[in-house]
TrEMBL record:
Domain Initiator Rep protein WH1: 18-159
Gene Ontology MF term list: DNA-directed DNA polymerase activity
GO biological process: DNA replication initiation
Domain of life, source organism: Bacteria
TM region(s), chain numbering: none
Alphabetized InterPro entries for the sequence: Initiator_Rep_WH1, WH-like_DNA-bd_sf, WH_DNA-bd_sf
Organism per entry: Pacificibacter maritimus
Family according to the record: Belongs to the initiator RepB protein family.
Protein name according to UniProt: Replication initiator protein
Amino acid sequence: MDSIEKDKLSGSLRRGAVKKNVAAIHVSGKLTLLQRKLSNVLLLNAYDTLMSQQVHQIDARTLCMMIGYNSNDMETLKQSLRGLAETVAEWDMLDEEGRQEWGVSSLLSYAKLKGGICEYAYSPALAQKLDDPKVFALINLNIQRKFTSGHALALYENCYRFVRTGSTGWWSLDLFRRLMGVSDSPYYEVYKHLNAKIIKPAVAEVNKTSNIVVTPETKRVGRSVSEIRFKIAENPQLSILDLDDGEGVRRSDLYKRMRALGVSDRLALQWMKEHDEAYVRKQLDYVAGQGSVKNPVSYLRAALTQDFSGTTVSPRNQSAPVTLSAQGAERARRLEILQGLVNGRSPTQRDADKRLFSSKLEGAALLDFENYGWVSSLNHAEIIAFWQEIDPEAFA
């Protein structure tokens, strides 16, 4: 940290200069577990271009894979997207000048499925809030996948956004019931029922499953509970690197090597989260061994995705015609196209692509793919067929 100039630090590290009353966007709790997961995947897919693009796209099959839908179940996907478009996000917060700001927006301004692509957009006001790490914290998808209860995931989301302050602050029970999606049920107007059926099970799952530990506290008016808040601490057993954190990682030599190549702070943290240190080091060493590379960031991205270090020939040189047979030249041409296809996917899509393809493999084929990624010789024909389904004209 001492070696990094403060003006070059990301927002999460400069937060000491920001008011500590972290503002959260409250999202109606009437979302199913799958809809909540869908919302988070869509946000992660769009995050890098929230302010520069109005419209975002993701392959529908990839999206289904990330959420846990059957990849052919478009009707369920349509219903879930409709639910997000009908869901209200609300904020009530102080702006940078200390003025009160209240706002409301649908969670998605629109969504469209066409040609196997899911296209969607956020309202400009909501996109601005989602893009600000002081307002909204990205949810780690590896943690999200572990949740089995929509109430537990809703509690986690609403608590995690206050992780740096250590407490959610006091919520009225009316607001809490709304966040949990049970505001329309007279049964949960009785705190005893709310505590037994919603609070206790959700707290137990959050503490067992996630990277934080939450503890509920209540206020009473007379003998009745009127408000609730949750104290928040890191879970020492499950705490992992999150997308907007990583002070310790920034001190590592791997992080500094990536930054020296021109990798952005957020992308370096993300790659350190997605891969173990030995794997990242191996790919960095491989890229460094290729000499002058025109775009080292893109090349490292491809190396991390496809494990270039496991190949005997640099993918940058595989199309050299002087030593290749006609069959080898065609394979090299396909690999070059394949590299472009992979590089064109977002990090979320690339992760889903690899998991979707590997789910169809077993035995030696699976091991070879785990070792060599998309340049796996044992799976070459299947890999080409897989990507032709995504882009039928790519290899023409």
